[in-house]
Design brief:
Length: 136
């Protein structure tokens, strides 16, 4: 079936987040939203281009930090749980997700061949410069 009619399994995937995780993600998004509104105000007030670009760079860095935090959580929980449960297709989904993100280069074939059920028995601590250790 077509994914747009929300009948496929992928459309129904979701992630239950702890209140702490939800709060941290929403706080980051609120800051990013404020930064974007600030950039809009700068454009509307004809601010000097380099000043706007500096704010764009800061906003981009904040969005990248959000992406890394969400990705690390996804790998620690969803991907690891799926692999432990024998759903090795989670590796292919992770590889596709990484290909869609603007992250530092990573050898995706190496990643795909080394992320196995056994690899998550000894949990990796970093991927693409992203710390995977749970925050204390």
């Amino acid at each position: 079936m077509d994914c747009c009619n929300h009948q496929c399994e992928a459309c129904h995937k979701h992630k239950e987040r702890t209140p702490e995780e939800m709060k941290a993600l929403i706080n980051r998004l609120n800051r990013i939203e404020g930064q974007v509104r600030g950039i809009r105000g700068m454009v509307e007030n004809s601010a000097y281009c380099p000043d706007i670009l500096t704010q764009v760079a800061a906003t981009s860095a904040a969005l990248n930090a959000f992406t890394k935090e969400l990705l690390a959580s996804h790998i620690r929980t969803c991907v690891a749980d799926d692999i432990r449960a024998g759903h090795d297709e989670a590796i292919d989904e992770l590889v596709q997700t990484l290909q869609n993100l603007d992250l530092p280069p990573v050898n995706l074939r190496f990643l795909q061949s080394h992320l196995t059920k056994n690899a998550f028995a000894i949990a990796p601590t970093h991927l693409c410069g992203i710390a995977l250790e749970p925050k204390e």
